Amino acid sequence: MKFGFVHDHHHAVSEWESRDIYDWVTDIFQAPAIRLQRGCTNDIRAHITREFQAEGWALNVKIDQELNNTIFAVKDDLGFQIQTGNMSRAPYDLLKFQYLFQSKKISTAAFALPTKLAAAKIGSNVAYFERICKELMVFDRVITVPILLIAFE
Description:
The chain is built from 6 helices and 6 strands; from the N terminus they run E-H-H-H-E-E-E-H-E-H-H-E. It has helices at residues 12-18, 22-27, 41-54, 89-102, 116-122, 129-138, and strands at 3-9, 58-62, 70-75, 78-82, 108-114, 147-152.
């Protein structure tokens, strides 16, 4: 697995750079030992989990105490989500970010997804960067939370 590229939704890059963790959050995806193929999602998630735990992030954070909805990680006013599953989950992840932003629980987010080509190696109908990037551009007035969209391959 390697880092691909980013999309800067509502100036999220500057938010992550100002906290001095832009390079860290993108470098996490430089993991050549992880091969993108069917059945690799557990390896990807285990690697990302170790990296975030080492930096003191809270993992699997409930967005509401009455619901069982979570995002992958939160630290201070930052939220992070990785999506390596079904395409239908990705817009829901964006909705969770927007809710946390409007509730003033986060001020910016990062969302990591495989590229279209990498998603095809992982499985069928897997969420991918290019699609979510287009959706963010269409819904830029609806999804107002700054999101650093990260592509990995």
